[in-house]
Amino acid sequence: MLEVAGLTTKYGAISALRDAHLTVGEGEVVGLIGPNGAGKTTLLGSIAGILPIESGTTTFDGADITSVAPEKILRSGLALVPEHRRIFTEMTVEENLKIGGVTRSATERGELLEEMAELFPVLRDKWDTAAGFMSGGEAQQLAIARALMSKPKLIMMDEPSLGLAPVLVDLVFELIDTLRSQGRTILVVEQNATRMLSAADRAYVLRSGDIVATGTGAELLERDDLFDTFVGG
Amino acid sequence: MFPDARRDVLFPVIGSAVLFSVLVGGGMLYQTIIGNGAAERLMTTMLIDAIIVIGIQVYIGNTGILSFGHIGFGAVAGYAFAVYAVSPEEKLKRIPNAPFGLTDTQVGPTLAMLIAVVVTLVFAFIVGIGLARSGAQSGAVAPTVITLAVLFVTHEVAKSWPQLTGGNRGGVSFAIGASLDKRWPILLALFAALLGARLYGQSRSGRLATAAREDNLAARAMGVNPLVQQMTALLISVIVVSIGSSLRVWQIGSILPDRFFFDYAMLTLVMLIVGGRNSVTGAVLGVAVMTAALELARRLGQEGFEIFGIGLDQAPLDWVFRENLNSIVLGIAMVGFMIWRPSGILEDWEFDRWLYRRLDRDEVEPERLVELDEVPDLRFSASDISVSFGGFHALSGAGITAASGEVVGIIGPNGAGKTTFVNVITGMVEPTHGEFSIGDRSLTGMPSFELSRSGLVRTFQNLRMFGALTVRENVETAALVAREHRADRQLPDVDPLIREAGLWEHRDRRARELDYGNSRRLELARAAAMAPSFMLLDEPTSGMSDSESLTMIEQVRHMAATVGAGVIVIDHDLGFITGISDRIYVFDQGRVIAEGTPAEVQADPRVQAAYLGSMAGD
Amino acid sequence: MSELLQNLIDGLGRGSIYALLALGVAVVFGIMHLLNFAHGELITIPAYVTYWAFNNGWNWWTVVPLIVIVAVLSSLLIERIAFSRVRGAKDFTLLLTSFGVHFIVAAGFLLYVSASVKQIPRPTWAANTVAISAVRIELFDIVVIAVTIVVLAGTTWLLQRTMFGLALRAAAADFDTARLMGIKSDSVIRGAFALSGFLAGIAAVFWIMREGQVTPTAGIDPMLKGVLAALIGGLGSLRGAVLGGFVLGLAEVLLRSWLPIEIQNLTTGFVFVMIALLFIFRPGGLVSVPQVERV
How large is the angle between the packed helices B516-528 and B471-485, nearest 10 degrees? Predict the structure, then answer.
């Protein structure tokens, strides 16, 4: 469904990406792990159209989305849950969700809102609260729900467990599981490598801008030298 | 070579002379060709406008702060000049009841100009304090509003205080004994303005102000106090504008509130923007270009031309080219340049700097810097640092120590509090608890520019170069500060430092043109030029590949050794950190969870867990 | 007491118009970080059109919607021609662009229409006063206040209860994330300018009625009022802008009644000084949000 070939991005000074190749098949959960600064966020950002790509291509559902505007990419069915969630703190939970569904018709939106309320009971409880008052875990759920409101074919998540207590990390991975059982396709960037590899069908390891390893989740988990691939050298 | 009197004094003098000759010469030529009084008046006006625009350039160009108020300062100067220079007989007709007995006072024009400058300076100083307090920096809204207030308030006062200013009717129209039929005061003032502007631009204050213009935060991290430099630039610019405004009043022979208001502010601003606001040469060019353009527009509107046999005074073109096209030309010039070339024609190109580089002798590659044997034995210590944002505890009792000559690494997963810790010890975030010091000198609570002057210098994760400045000028900025505030240390020479960083062949290239690796090395060199006691490197290998990171290890160690600095480095690249550090601190969830040698830390299962994450219940 | 009430109503009447102008300025600033020095032209242009209309037999009933439509169209046109080309530029550039636009429009009218003052007949009811106990209040002020309240209520409804308003608010809060939601930059920016134009149009109706004339530089005063009021309220805040407008209106009236006659003309100057002081001591305005420096 998603194919990235030879992607090279220089995002100012923060991190670079060199010649990255990645695929995500329909219904798969694919993980992207690696130490910080490795370029994981850069990779997602390049795919989603918010970072300028230097060379290489991204293809989604057969269509070339390289360097296409982010709003168009969203409309083609690829949604991103950004790093640090970036929820609209001044707006209520309901409004955040509605914005997520801005590209849908009003009736569809109404149905989707109900779906989200069911899938995320904690959001239903805080329906009219300003999103800025939510805890980290709640905010993460809101961010994911908001992305789901656009009925994406593929959902990308950037470090969903960031800053969350262990029990909430559990929640996040349960959510990923649930979404997978619904048949959704997911690409997740994660810092928590062990959890991610257990949850993923396949994964890529990114270090200093290069993809250094790939395989199924189980394969990578079994490697003794996993920590070393993180450290390098 | 640093400091470079040829580049900073000799060549600006030469350059000013050349610019002066070109502008005045060009004006005389035009005057001779056209040969009538109108041409002469136009040239005189152009030269006076040049003085004022140069004055405005000194401020806007060096600080990057958009000021609408300089014409307001001009109004103050103009009125002060008029009131003091006009004869009592004239004043009796216009302002018979002037306060402070001014109706009866008269002084010679030179003294009147001096008084005008002083009065305006006092006013400007007060406004400058206000600007400083409002957090003025390049690009901010507040100073624009404040300077706009200056423009409006002076205008309103001029209109509403007829006893002093003659109000809106007729102004203080006058003949000042000798009317300005000689050019030489203008020529003298123009040359002085050119020279002053260039010498200031190359002076310590001007260069520090320019650095702050490029990146306010980085400048402060290099020990620059932007507010002091901005005030200096303001005062010098006001002196020039005051002189120019006095001359303008003298030349026109009268003053009205509207003469120093929106229209003239727009004109001078457009002239500056068109030429290039970051350059004195640009200011001069802008004045010449706009004078020509406006004169052309005036001609097209009035007399009609023929272009390709089509008379411009025939319908329908005569509908477009009318009299008073000026304002439209100005507006279109402003919008056009903002859309297509916001930096102006010349950007920040200066004639004398270009000349200097062309005529410059081939520089010899400087010698290698020797690593210092004797390193003052200082200890950096941060203890019990806690930071809470609302209910969220970013840091709880974190602390590190580092000795001169040591390299201490800080690692930890994202959200561990490393960045917050760095922000605390570099003066950007106030801790709710805790303190830090170098030796027995406490650093807690110091603003960032004082911290770097005290010996703790940082680099930034998001590279912060003084982009428009050359590699050399970047390093010199730090050296300028070090010479003043770090004089007790052994200061490295700028050129050898640049060579040490592997940037000698790029020394005259702008920092923003450097590739990524070189930019990082420039950051290092710039920090080293401060002769710091401790260098704090914030993710120096961010964005680098593994091999590039490894070369950084040697570069950092070497650079630190040449200035005798201890190093504290935060990075995610474990290969880099384990390769460079003598000791490592591991942060997780706002605390230091481990400390030890690289080998110890790497083998620590807690560290592995922190990095790889753990399964639930581990 | 009666004078106080009269001043209050007068101040609110002026303040209403300023609030509308300020809101228009704030809406555009929120989306694009552009302080629109050309906002006053959204009054000048409709004013000249009004002059033309009255010379061609229109009356106030037909002119009012015309004014609003012209204001909206002008706002969109200016965005299209000038501001769309400097999107994402530094604040310096945006500011100067709007300045330049103001100049071009003002100069355009000066050159191609006339420098002289053009008279516009005031509506007949505007001169009426209403008596409440011992106080005579201008009917005009009451109408202005009432209409402004309705418009503000309507705008609040638009921003809070429609998807369009939601999109605007999202874009103002976080433009990049809004695009990630699928919101098109072009659409939301044009929407902001249209809304800004509409608000300016309503303000223009009353401004023109009150002034009864138009000159090429008629736009400077409303622009100043709008910008100043938005600044008083703190540029990031729409509520602040409205509040700032009313504060400005009241301040003007109060200053006028307190200042000695000789310096009453300095009112705008005083307001400017107050705002400058406000910036010095409270850079974020009245309704400010502290900014944290990003490293």
Answer: 20
- Average pLDDT, stretch B220-248? 96
Please identify among residues 388-427 of chain B the ones whose CB lies closer than 8 Å to any CB of chain C: 419, 423
Contact B338 C101 (CB under 8 A): no
* Cα gap C282→B349, rounded to integer Å: 38
Omega prior to B316 cis, within 30 of 0: yes
CA–CA gap between residue B356 and residue C169 (Å, rounded): 53
C-alpha span between A41 and A119 (Å, rounded)? 27
Chain B residue whose CA is closest to C266: B156
Q: pTM score, two decimals? A: 0.90
Question: By C-alpha distance, which of B139, B158, B126, B140 is closest to B264?
Answer: B158
Contacts of C268 in chain B (CB under 8 A): 152, 156
Residue B95 near residue B163, CB atoms below 8 Å: yes
Residue B543, domain member (yes or no): yes
pLDDT at C188 over 70: yes
pLDDT confidence of residue B179: 52
Q: Which of C91, C96, C101 sits opposite B139 (nearest CB)?
A: C91
Pick the last residue of a domain from B211, B229, B256: B256
pLDDT of residue A23: 93
d(CA A83, CA A69): 19
Q: What is the pLDDT of residues B537-569, one digit of tens each?
A: 998 888 777 788 888 899 999 899 888 899 999
The answer, yes or no, to whether residue B240 has pLDDT greater than 70, is yes
What is the domain range of residue B134?
Answer: 5-256
CA separation (Å) from A142 to A120, A146, B316, B415?
A: 8, 6, 63, 20
Which of C34, C103, C224, C268 would you mutate first to test chain B, the one with the most B CBs within 10 A? C103
Burial B100-128, CB ≥16 within 10 A → b, else e: eebbebbeebeebbbbbbebbbebbeebb
C186: nearest CA in chain A?
A71
pLDDT 10s digits, C116-163: 888 888 888 877 888 777 778 888 999 999 999 999 999 999 999 999
Q: How far apart are CA C40 and CA C18, in angstroms?
A: 11
- Please tell me the distance in Å from B399's CA to the nearest CA on chain A: 21
Kindly report, residue by residue over B161-204, the tens digit of the pLDDT: 777 777 776 556 555 544 556 788 899 999 999 999 999 999 99
Residue type, C261: I
CATH of the domain at B605: 3.40.50.300
Chain B residues close to A227, C-beta within 8 Å: 608, 611-612
- Nearest CB to A208 within list B546, B611, B613: B546
Tell which phi-psi region holds residue B557, choosing left (phi > 0), alpha (psi between -120 and 50) or beta.
alpha
The secondary structure of chain C in percent helix, strand, coil, rounded to multiples of 5, reads 75, 5, 20
Asked whether residue B314 is assigned to any structural domain, the reply reads no
For residue B59, the domain's CATH number is: 1.10.3470
Single out the residue of B219, B206, B202 nearest to residue B465, CA to CA. B219
* A102/C183 Cβ within 8 A: yes
The minimal CB distance from A162 to the residues B414, B542, B611 is found for B414
Contact B468, B446 (CB under 8 A): no
pLDDT at A226: 72
Pairwise CA distance, residues A202 & A22, whole Å: 11
pLDDT score of B139: 65
- What is the domain count for chain B? 2
Domain-by-domain residue ranges, chain C?
A: 2-225
To the nearest whole angstrom, how far is the Cα of B121 from the nearest Cα of chain A? 43
pLDDT tens digits for range B450-469 = 999 999 999 998 889 999 99
- Determine contact, residues B427/B434, Cβ cutoff 8 Å: no
Residue B409's pLDDT band (boundaries 50, 70, 90)? Answer: very high
